[in-house]
Amino acid sequence: MSTMRHWSVDAISRLTGAALVAAAATTLAQTPPRNIWPEQYRTRTAEEMARQFEEPSRAVFRYRTAIAGLMGLKPGMTAADIGAGSGFLARTLAERVGPTGRVVATELDGKMVAYMNARAKAEGLSNFTAVKGSVDASGLEPNSVDAAAIVNAYSYFDEPKAMLQSIAEAVRQDGLVVIVDVPQTGSGRDLTGVEADDVIAAAAGVGLELVNESSVVPGHYAIRFRKK
Fold first, then answer.
1. pTM score, two decimals?
2. Are 56 and 13 members of one domain?
């Protein structure tokens, strides 16, 4: 009886351990990647993606001029659009900084980078350049931009801390960073957005000081930070 009791305890222990491992594996398998865009980029053309990004009813597209207005841009400045998609905001920024200024649009997908550069050339935007970033780096040179925008992109960063650090390093002293996103909703694979307080805390961790918050884009928060 004693041997049976010891065997039962050991067996239960092993079964419990196996169950925990299986549960952990299931949880990891169910945890969605933050960045959902690569699959869409893989299966759709750049032109199709651009039509999605520039759908007239999409708030960040409709209010792109208002977002640009939050960046404090002047002719001759250098601005960046991180996770630029089709480059609709970056093209608006190019108008703001003028021919003596410069705009850099970054994207993970090489197809979209090529699309943005080709479109800028066709539209005569000689002050516009699109470059390829990575999941943990913006693709920008240190101290190279006066202002940067992250529009509907921060909540999809797979490596948000590293990416935000890279962006902060790219912004010059006293430069502005504008983050536009939506509050967190849903759960599991339906989880979207990120809480504004979490964005503010993360920004403070990389030396970005809160300036103010705007509700200029319906359904979104727009937070301005200054590089200390």
1. 0.83
2. no
